[in-house]
């Protein structure tokens, strides 16, 4: 690492620490700030935005912390080869274990795309990687816990989210298999491009890497990466709840078709981390139908704006477009079926 890269890395670390200190300072002095003249003179709408925003952040951050540390441990200590070894070679038979695998490893959609890319590069079939891609961000235990906590008064949301995610991940994987079974290579990068930098690093370094430090660095990077999406999403949700006319919300939320479509679009644009999206979804529970909330919780982790950018970087454009269309149609249709025949 040259001097310029070192200074840039140090500046980012210092900025992250400063932001964290500011957050802690504001958190522990909330009552003083509330009682100040400046705060009391703020419009009620801005106070309401602040209240909703802070409540979402405080509820979600413990799950973010738990998720990034477990994800970092898996990243450093669990080999992709080990995961691949336990998957059946038969194309159809591998779908179910892949969904089970997604329920074991707490990897959110913020990190799942590069992980699946590496798995496919090491020999995992494309359709099995897709099952892991759409299933793992929802089925993992951290997301289960956060959804349970956010919707503890309405467990239907929790069970519907987990059940749909499991079934739909297998269905989407099967559809992708049927479409691309003769065009299995849908990655943009070759194996040499993927492992070249790793080989160079091993050759040029005689020191054994410190796994504890690697784990901490990886957890810190993921924390700040996930945190910025959570903060942005929480802020937009707070603004949305405060300034959008309630009559518009009620009109959109009362119709099952429009409510489902709007919540799916909202999930795509917000690009929330799956370990925290339940808290944002809970803030809309009074304005949208239960099934549209479930659509938000299922669709967002499977496909969102930041995932689309990453997919286009790692996969061929045709595959990404087919994947996006498949996920959108399958989730929208299944949620409507769930509403009319189950809920």
From TrEMBL:
InterPro entries: DUF318, UPF0718
Compartment(s) where it occurs, according to its Swiss-Prot or TrEMBL record: Cell membrane
Membrane topology: Multi-pass membrane protein
Main location: membrane
Keywords: Cell membrane, Membrane, Transmembrane, Transmembrane helix
Any one GO CC term of the record: plasma membrane
Protein name as catalogued: Permease
